[in-house]
Design goal:
Elements (H helix, E strand, L loop, with lengths): L2 E6 L17 E2 L2 E2 H9 L8 E5 L4 H8 L4 E5 L4 H12 L8 E4 L9 H14 L3 E6 L4 E3 L8 E3 L5 E10 H13 L7 H7 L5 E4 L12 H11 L4
The structure holds cytidine-5'-triphosphate and ligand LQXTBERG.
Ligand LQXTBERG binds next to strand 10.
Pathway: Isoprenoid biosynthesis; isopentenyl diphosphate biosynthesis via DXP pathway; isopentenyl diphosphate from 1-deoxy-D-xylulose 5-phosphate: step 2/6
Enzyme class: transferase
Family: Belongs to the IspD/TarI cytidylyltransferase family. IspD subfamily.
Amino acid sequence: MAVHFLFPAGGVGSRFGSDQPKQLTEIAGRAVMAWTLNACFETDRKGRAFIGLSAEDAAGQAIAAGYDELEVFTAGGERFETVLNGLNHMLESVHPFDWVLVHDIARPCVQAIDIQRLIDTVLVTQMGGILCQPITDTVKQASSLQGIPKTIDRSTLCAAQTPQCFRVQELRDALRKALDDGVNVTDEASAIEHISQPMNLVVGSSDNIKLTHPEDAALVEFYLTQQGRI
Ligand SMILES: Nc1ccn([C@@H]2O[C@H](COP(=O)(O)OP(=O)(O)OP(=O)(O)O)[C@@H](O)[C@H]2O)c(=O)n1
Ligand SMILES: C[C@](O)(CO)[C@H](O)COP(=O)(O)O
């Protein structure tokens, strides 16, 4: 079965706060979305690649047009809607049992070696999986900023990254069910958890950060430099 990429790229970056979608931010002369796509296309994926963009995002559309292998679909108002649009679009022409790697366009420091390890794990086990990172801080349960918070055993916790890889139809159906059931879906794994399916947790790299706040741009540049990509 093929392994495809789906890039949700319809966000506006409200927490980043610039006057354009954050994935258009230039780092060392190249847009964040281009750094992300270049890293992903270094992998041995043997599948197609789809990107969800807003119709108003002319600059994003222009960058996407520079990649022959990218197929564009229309993004939704929320991340899960973009992913759902993409999966529905894919199911018109790919095999439902194919695998899809969903990767935030806003994670430009992802390394091909980590994506490849996720792909290999999924294909060997024939079970979906996600890249993740063990939590290093002591974690408090804090429903308010007062009172005595509970400390949570961090050995049971990890931070979810992307890519997250599942079968195309299973993920589409799981996302739909999660939405029908009113479950808050911030990543693909949330939907798969809701249908009680197991998945692989593949430890990735701590530099696979998401460009979220303005200060993350300097970190992205630092990590890309450290990786020898700048
Ligand atoms: N309607 C949306 C919202 C988000 N995303 C994508 O989902 C990924 C992760 O989302 P996030 O970091 O939340 O991006 P934004 O929505 O752009 O940021 P913010 O929440 O700060 O507005 C990004 O690649 C973003 O482009 C998307 O495809 N469609
Ligand atoms: C998918 C994700 O990047 C995994 O960490 C995350 O869930 C996106 O959600 P956010 O609320 O926009 O950070």
